[in-house]
Amino acid sequence: MFKQGNFPLNKLLGLRMSESESLLSKIRNSCLCESNSVIKELDNGAVIRIGSGVAKARKEQLYKTYEIRLKFISDRKGLHAQRISNSISEFVENLILEDPEYLQTARVKVNPYGSYLVWFIPNTFKIIGCMFTISQSEVSDGKLEDLWDGKIT
Hints:
Layout: E1 3-4, E2 7-8, E3 12-13, H1 17-28, H2 35-43, E4 48-50, E5 55-56, H3 59-73, H4 79-98, E6 102-109, E7 115-121, E8 126-133, H5 141-149
Parallel strand pairs: 3-4
Antiparallel strand pairs: 1-2, 4-6, 5-6, 6-7, 7-8
Helix pairs in contact: 3-4
């Protein structure tokens, strides 16, 4: 089984081997605030799943969506809110800087809840966003509020 670092590339689902190597290399060499956490999870056995397709980058829609999310968490003091705020800011900044025509995503599920969402430019595999997300369906409303407010980590 081919490995890059400690990570077996056959656990990267949705890409050919050379594409897998390129994506992992880009994540590993990324300076984004959550990239090292993604690599740590992968090295510990997590699986990365590539989104089913390439999508036209609807930048205006993405800006609006993430602007709303930033406003929602702007008054939250928890570590999770700070992490999301930092990674959203990086993503929006890179959207502006890179101005991609198309985007693709990958997701790394972690335990006990949450996942890393990785945004990348197809063909070049340039990583433009990496954020730790927790779905409302994964935790109770009270727990999610406690995460946002820093009562739990």
